[in-house]
């Protein structure tokens, strides 16, 4: 199992309502999982817990066998940098870096990912260019451009290449296609699948957009496994 969550209870503050109450949630290695759920059902909160941005006082969140609650915040930052590629909804590219330097960035924070990238392509820049090419960004002129001059679809591909750099075992994508039209959304997801399957990575893709669901191995509706949402709906 890449992810094993049991008996989780989470509130953002001790006096705030419970946002997540999940008895059991597992994701197998190599799976491409689609997580859907209405706005406010706790999707982003779950991703914060899976990536160790925050931790739960009650229950267990294991990622690749590591109990995240047992790590301090600096150790969790290292764990995330080494093992998790994250594609943000707004991409979070660094505006003053070139395309290639944005893609290389995870290797500045993780020697683990740096050595994997070097093993694969011999040089970080070569690995960044290989990923960009696979993601349909194959024009060398594009690689030198400032990210602020790229289209939304191009920025999305740069964000994906950055998340894939150094072959993290787990890729998390938080609504990264919401600003694209339907055709471009599907082609982007196919490219992500190709890259993930190529290295045996696990993909967790979160979206409101149920029309993407058919593309994935499995789907989870968070509001169905989250007892906190059920209680809110009943109340
Ligand atoms: N950093 C935070 N601090 C405090 N409360 C938060 C924080 N992030 C989310 N929440 C609260 O947790 C609940 C679940 O929000 P969350 O963002 O996880 O839902 P979501 O399913 O991702 O929603 P959306 O689809 O609209 O992004 C909401 O009540 C929200 O206000």
Automatic annotation (TrEMBL):
Coiled coil: none annotated. The keyword Transferase does not apply. Residues 3-232 form the ABC transporter domain. The keyword Hydrolase does not apply. Keywords: ATP-binding, Nucleotide-binding, Transport. One of its GO terms (molecular function) is ATP binding. CDD domains: ABC_MJ0796_LolCDE_FtsE. It comes from the Bacteria. It holds the Pfam family ABC_tran. Belongs to the ABC transporter superfamily. PANTHER family: ALPHA-D-RIBOSE 1-METHYLPHOSPHONATE 5-TRIPHOSPHATE SYNTHASE SUBUNIT PHNL, LIPOPROTEIN-RELEASING SYSTEM ATP-BINDING PROTEIN LOLD. This is Methionine ABC transporter ATP-binding protein. It comes from Sedimenticola thiotaurini. The lineage of its organism: Bacteria, Pseudomonadati, Pseudomonadota, Gammaproteobacteria, Chromatiales.
């Amino acid at each position: 199992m890449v992810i094993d969550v049991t008996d989780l209870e989470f509130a953002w503050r001790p006096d705030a309502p419970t946002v997540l109450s999940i008895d059991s949630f597992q994701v197998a290695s190599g799976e491409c999982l689609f997580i859907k759920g209405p706005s406010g059902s706790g999707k982003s909160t779950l991703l914060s817990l899976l990536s160790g941005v925050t931790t739960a006082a009650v229950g267990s969140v294991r990622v690749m066998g590591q109990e995240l609650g047992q790590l301090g915040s600096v150790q969790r930052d290292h764990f995330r940098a080494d093992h998790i590629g994250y594609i943000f909804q707004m991409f979070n590219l660094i505006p003053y870096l070139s395309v290639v330097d944005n893609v290389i960035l995870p290797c500045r924070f993780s020697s683990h990912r740096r050595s994997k990238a070097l093993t694969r392509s011999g040089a970080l820049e070569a690995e960044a260019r290989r990923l960009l090419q696979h993601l349909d960004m194959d024009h060398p002129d594009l690689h030198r451009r400032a990210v602020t001059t790229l289209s939304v679809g191009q920025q999305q591909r740069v964000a994906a290449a950055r998340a894939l750099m150094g072959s993290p075992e787990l890729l998390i994508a938080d609504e990264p296609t919401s600003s694209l039209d339907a055709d471009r959304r599907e082609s982007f997801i196919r490219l992500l699948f190709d890259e993930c399957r190529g290295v045996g990575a696990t993909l967790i893709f979160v979206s409101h957009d149920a029309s993407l669901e058919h593309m994935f191995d499995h789907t989870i509706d968070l509001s169905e496994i989250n007892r906190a949402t059920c209680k809110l709906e009943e109340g």
